[in-house]
Specification:
Distance between the termini: 18 Å
Shape: globular
Number of helices: 3
Strand content: 25-35%
Oligomer: single chain
Radius of gyration: 17 Å
Structural class: alpha+beta
Helix content: 25-40%
Strand order of the largest sheet: 1-2-3-4-5
């Protein structure tokens, strides 16, 4: 998850490590308002994907699989409200599909997380859901990174704040804001988004 302060907006992603950050850097250097950014996203994603796959090829790495997901959330001056969009890539030839994010967007999701309560006003409940995601990823894809610090990013019309709530792996090092126990960053987080 990468905050882009001047919109304010957040770009988050899942898939091959590095691609979401390349998209976020490109978004952060696009000279427009948030609505202009959303209009430019198809071209941004196509250009970032091309650059990313060329970079991997130049380093002799295996090409990235076309299974990237990018979520962009921010304040829309045109609509006078927060908007979230998910761009999902399933096929290189087709590119990235786009859909609006509903009130909540949680990825990844599994049926055994149905009991989880979604309440963006409660960092504890959101951390509980993120821990369930971490366990699910560790169980279903043991080779994948899972966990890390759980960071809450709060968007307001004219500002953005971030706060590390806890470490999802229980690793010691920094103060855990929920329990008072120390924790340390490790791995990567999941995507949890709630629109006001």
């Amino acid at each position: 998850m990468v905050p882009i302060i001047h919109y304010p907006a957040v770009v988050a992603g899942r898939g091959r490590a590095g691609f979401p950050h390349l998209v976020a850097v490109t978004c952060g250097t696009t000279p427009c308002d948030f609505d202009g950014l959303l209009d430019a996203m198809p071209a941004i994603l196509a250009g970032a994907w091309k650059a990313f796959t060329e970079m991997l090829a130049a380093r002799g790495e295996v090409p990235a699989e076309p299974s990237q997901s990018i979520v962009v959330v921010g304040w829309s001056p045109r609509e006078d409200r927060f908007i979230g969009r998910e761009y999902q890539q399933e096929n290189v030839a087709i590119g990235f599909g786009c859909q609006d994010v509903g009130r909540y967007h949680v990825a990844p999701w599994a049926e055994d997380m149905e009991h989880a309560r979604l309440d963006p006003r409660s960092p504890g409940l959101m951390a509980e859901l993120a821990r369930a995601q971490t366990r699910m990823v560790a169980r279903t894809k043991p080779e994948a990174s899972a966990g890390g610090d759980f960071i809450v990013c709060t968007l307001r019309r004219r500002g953005i704040t971030t706060e590390t709530i806890c470490n999802l792996n229980g690793v010691r090092g920094r103060e855990d804001l929920l329990t008072g126990r120390p924790s340390r960053a490790q791995g990567v987080g999941r995507i949890l988004i709630a629109l006001p």
